[in-house]
DNA sequence: GGTCGATTCTTTTTT
DNA sequence: AGAATCGACC
């Protein structure tokens, strides 16, 4: 064993070795980006076990994500395959460790819980809260933001709980909710830590007393987690914590920037540094150094590497087109798509990249956290199923009947009456829900289920989102039927199981158009990129107002800088930054000052404007998009859009029927933000209108139709086909519009 | 139940 | 700066 360990130690650099061999009872390691933080942490654990003879069961290893915990555990098991897994029960996230303590050692009965308590997700807690508001007739403001409001109300100390900021009953609700959760034997993620903290303070018995507390990414600790750590340390544990104050990007969610330093002082911890970065080329590191905030040393060991490429783009759409071409080329040069990543500041920025990459046949994956609860129609549908499968769930029944968006739109009071009375004949939808269990044996597929509930009527056929809504519902039902088949369960109970765990299936319902290949480009927010690394990183939208995002205070501004630091240090070999001259939303045109903060000698400016996208190209893309939407609408087979190969998308002639496209266009104009940018790209680059399509139809052009535009006034239609319209305006010249997206008025 | 003016929040996300 | 939402008033 010891011999093995010596070998491990030899692989470390002197700084890493010092951290592992450190003997102080409390030690905080200031680990720079890419400096082998996890390796040090794991070697430290092995050192404590093999050399210091501390049992694994006497260590508590805390991480923030399951992913990090799994990595540590699997690396330990890889080095020592004989290790019984139950020795590592104290290894996990803060929450899972708290759960372990509560179940195994702490007297939860003191808080009114049983040992069999359930862990519930935030959604379920919110439902409990709404029930309580109704039952107790509480006055709560900003109900739609109740989740956030409750969170902050629970974080407030007892003494300050007198009057709420909005003069409502939020604290009363928090108290009632706490009682109700204990009564129903349910704990939220928050409760797990809160209750563990409470009982660790009170419990006399030394049932929980690890010898070592080892924390990964300490800089992300919030107050609750810090208290948890403190409870363990005051029970006699030594501390070994690793983190990077330059990577604090979650302070808005409760982790304090100074935590690294308060830890140091509170426990007189020894501070060590890991300065050597093994990940990035020195050019990238040098750029990163411009965004360091506490002057810590950051040393590179790699070659200078290529310069950082800065690109000026017209807008996000053009950037996406450029990136698609660039990535194809890199792929041809032998770099796998899995080594490339696109980062952006806001979730909403991903859509245009998804659309373009899909069209260009670039395999990609978007990291986003969306559940069925985020899509109103699916939320409604899940409640519909929940009540149908368990008519005791009256809250769901009332929700379904009284929803303003969907269903019969019955008033809340009347819905409650109907549901509580349980008598048939007063609402068709209610009767159908009550009859599902009886009838579902005959409903063999999603279409029959859809028809059974007559959802064509209840999903508001007149609303703009009807097609999208019914698609989503069909997909949800489809997944449910697949699940039931797979489980080989009896249909009603299979459905019940599916509905109970529906939050887990949210992703599959929503990402129907995302390629599932292994080797694919990753699209994500900079936040989501933390802890990852890629050979090629493209950060898009480096405009002021986006990166950095316009923030109110200095602290926010500093966090934006750390965020950008995190983003650029993900890159190993190649980094590209882009900014827009015509940004869509909140951003200002032109490069962010963050780009000007990087020494010019490290930068190389790409072509001023990326490869020009011809009108022809744009047209084709829009048509194809329409086609795939139409295809989805009529045959509900999402696989179609998945199987697009790059070759396919190039030579397609429009096969859609004109009637269909006209019917659908108003809905699209509401839903499709990339379309708007398409239109704008065209509007403001009239010089491109010379590249005319060969498919123009002369008959239409002759008719001298007039249109009115909000900005250009009245114009004469020069050219028109299914998707495009070209008109000449006095004083502005010829402009091309995409019919579906422009708000032109026909005269 | 509908309109007006005032007030509040807006982004990032894990468990 | 603009959207969403609240409360007051009719």
UniProtKB/TrEMBL annotation:
Region of interest (Disordered), residue spans: 624-714
Catalytic activity: ATP + H2O = ADP + phosphate + H(+); Couples ATP hydrolysis with the unwinding of duplex DNA by translocating in the 3'-5' direction
Keywords: ATP-binding, Exonuclease, Helicase, Hydrolase, Isomerase, Nuclease, Nucleotide-binding
Gene3D superfamilies: 1.10.10.160, P-loop containing nucleotide triphosphate hydrolases (3.40.50.300), PCRA, domain 4 (1.10.486.10)
Transmembrane segment boundaries: none
Enzyme class, spelled out: isomerase
Hydrolase in keyword set: yes
SUPFAM superfamilies associated with the record: P-loop containing nucleoside triphosphate hydrolases (SSF52540)
Domain named UvrD-like helicase C-terminal: residues: 277-531
InterPro entries: DExx_box_DNA_helicase_dom_sf (IPR013986), DNA_helicase_UvrD-like_C (IPR014017), DNA_helicase_UvrD/REP (IPR000212), P-loop_NTPase (IPR027417), UvrD-like_ATP-bd (IPR014016)
Residues bound to ATP: 31-38
Family membership: Belongs to the helicase family. UvrD subfamily.
Full protein name: DNA 3'-5' helicase
Organism: Blautia hominis
């Amino acid at each position: 064993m010891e011999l093995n360990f010596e070998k491990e130690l030899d692989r470390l650099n002197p700084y890493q070795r010092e951290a592992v061999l450190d003997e102080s009872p409390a030690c905080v390691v200031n680990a720079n980006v890419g400096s082998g933080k996890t390796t040090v942490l794991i070697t430290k654990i092995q050192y404590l076990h093999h050399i210091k003879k501390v049992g694994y069961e006497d260590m508590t290893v805390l991480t923030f994500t399951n992913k990090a915990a799994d990595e540590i555990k699997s690396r330990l098991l890889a080095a020592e395959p004989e290790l019984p897994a139950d020795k590592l029960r104290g290894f996990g996230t803060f929450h899972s460790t708290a759960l372990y303590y509560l179940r195994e050692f702490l007297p939860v009965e003191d808080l009114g819980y049983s040992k069999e308590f359930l862990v519930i997700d935030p959604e379920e807690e919110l439902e409990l809260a709404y029930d309580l508001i109704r039952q107790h007739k509480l006055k709560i403001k900003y109900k739609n933001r109740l989740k956030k409001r409750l969170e902050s109300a629970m974080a407030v100390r007892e003494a300050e709980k007198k009057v709420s900021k909005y003069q409502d009953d939020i604290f009363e609700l928090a108290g009632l909710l706490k009682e109700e959760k204990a009564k129903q034997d349910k704990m939220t993620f928050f409760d797990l830590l809160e209750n563990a903290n409470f009982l660790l303070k009170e419990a006399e018995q030394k049932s929980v007393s690890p010898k070592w507390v080892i924390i990964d990414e300490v800089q992300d600790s919030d107050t609750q987690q810090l208290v948890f750590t403190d409870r363990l340390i005051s029970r006699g544990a030594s501390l070994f914590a690793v983190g990077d104050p330059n990577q604090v990007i979650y302070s808005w969610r409760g982790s304090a920037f100074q935590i690294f330093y308060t830890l140091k002082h509170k426990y007189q911890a020894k501070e060590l540094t890991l300065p050597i970065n093994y990940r990035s080329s020195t050019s990238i590191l040098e750029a990163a150094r411009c965004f360091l905030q506490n002057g810590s040393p950051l040393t590179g060991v790699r070659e200078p590497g290529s310069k950082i490429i800065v690109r000026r783009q017209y807008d996000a759409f053009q950037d996406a087109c450029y990136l698609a071409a660039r990535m194809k080329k890199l792929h041809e040069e032998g770099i796998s798509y899995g080594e490339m990543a696109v980062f952006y500041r806001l979730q909403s920025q991903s859509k245009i990249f998804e659309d373009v990459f899909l069209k260009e046949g670039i395999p990609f994956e978007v990291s986003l956290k969306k559940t069925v609860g985020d899509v109103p129609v699916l939320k409604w549908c899940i409640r519909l199923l929940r009540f149908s499968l368990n008519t005791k769930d009256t809250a769901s029944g009332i929700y379904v009947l009284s929803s303003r968006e969907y269903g019969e739109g019955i008033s809340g009071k009347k819905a409650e009456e109907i549901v509580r009375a349980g008598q048939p004949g007063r609402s068709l939808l209610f009767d159908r829900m009550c009859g599902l269990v009886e009838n579902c044996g005959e409903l063999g597929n999603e279409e029959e289920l859809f028809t059974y509930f007559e959802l064509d009527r209840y999903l508001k056929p007149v609303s703009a989102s009807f097609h999208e809504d019914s698609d989503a519902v069909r997909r949800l039902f489809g997944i449910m039927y697949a699940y039931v088949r797979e489980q080989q369960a009896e249909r009603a109970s299979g459905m019940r199981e599916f509905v109970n765990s529906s939050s887990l299936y949210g992703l599959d319902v929503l990402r129907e158009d995302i390629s599932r290949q292994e080797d694919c480009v990753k699209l994500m927010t900079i936040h989501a990129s933390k802890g990852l690394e890629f050979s090629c990183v493209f950060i898009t939208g480096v405009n002021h107002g986006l990166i950095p995002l316009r923030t109110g205070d200095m602290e926010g501004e500093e966090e934006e800088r750390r965020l950008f630091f995190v983003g650029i240090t993900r890159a190993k070999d190649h980094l590209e930054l882009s900014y827009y001259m015509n940004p869509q939303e909140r951003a200002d045109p032109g490069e962010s000052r963050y780009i000007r903060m990087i020494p010019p000698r490290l930068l190389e400016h790409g072509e001023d404007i990326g490869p020009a996208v011809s009108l022809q190209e744009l047209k084709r893309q829009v048509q194809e998009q329409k086609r795939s939407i139409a295809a989805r609408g009529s045959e509900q087979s999402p696989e179609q859009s998945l199987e697009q190969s790059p070759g396919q998308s190039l030579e397609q002639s429009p096969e859609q029927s004109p009637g269909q496209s006209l019917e659908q266009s108003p809905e699209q104009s509401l839903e499709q933000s990339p379309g708007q940018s398409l239109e704008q790209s065209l509007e403001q680059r009239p010089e491109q209108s010379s590249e005319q399509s060969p498919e123009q139809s002369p008959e239409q052009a002759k008719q001298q139709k007039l249109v009115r535009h909000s900005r250009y006034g009245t114009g004469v239609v020069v050219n028109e086909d299914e998707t495009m319209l070209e008109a000449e305006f006095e004083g502005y010249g010829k402009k091309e519009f995409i019919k579906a997206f422009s708000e032109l008025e026909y005269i």
